[in-house]
Specification:
mainly alpha, 2 helices, 0% strand
Length: 109
């Protein structure tokens, strides 16, 4: 759409129509995610587990979480860089990897 393409693709849809269908699908996914999260929180609460927001933590809680992260999580995190110099990073066999992509949101006019 940003490039001004208005012709239909192999699926018979224009870019605008494709984006509309994607938006409908994503909105449905968000609604399902919210529903599952509400149900999960109720189940957790019945087991005595409460999920708090960051603003609900006191200084002692924050210090404990910081120590826990630095002692047990940070040491096993290995960042992988993907850029023109490294188009595909080494991913070890039988290891867990999480790939994240940073992107900028733009408005479509």
């Amino acid at each position: 759409m940003n490039a001004g393409v208005a012709q239909t693709s192999d699926d018979g849809l224009t870019p605008a129509e494709q984006l509309e269908q994607i938006n409908v699908y994503v909105c449905d996914l968000f609604r399902l995610q919210d529903e599952i999260w509400r149900e999960l929180r109720l189940i957790l609460e019945k087991e005595g587990i409460t999920v708090l927001g960051a603003n609900e933590l006191n200084a002692s809680d924050r210090e404990w979480l910081e120590r826990r992260f630095m002692d047990h999580i940070f040491p096993v995190i290995t960042p992988l860089a993907i850029d023109p110099a490294r188009p595909f990073p080494f991913i070890p066999n039988l290891a867990h990897a999480l790939a994240l992509r940073r992107f900028a949101l733009t408005t479509i006019s």
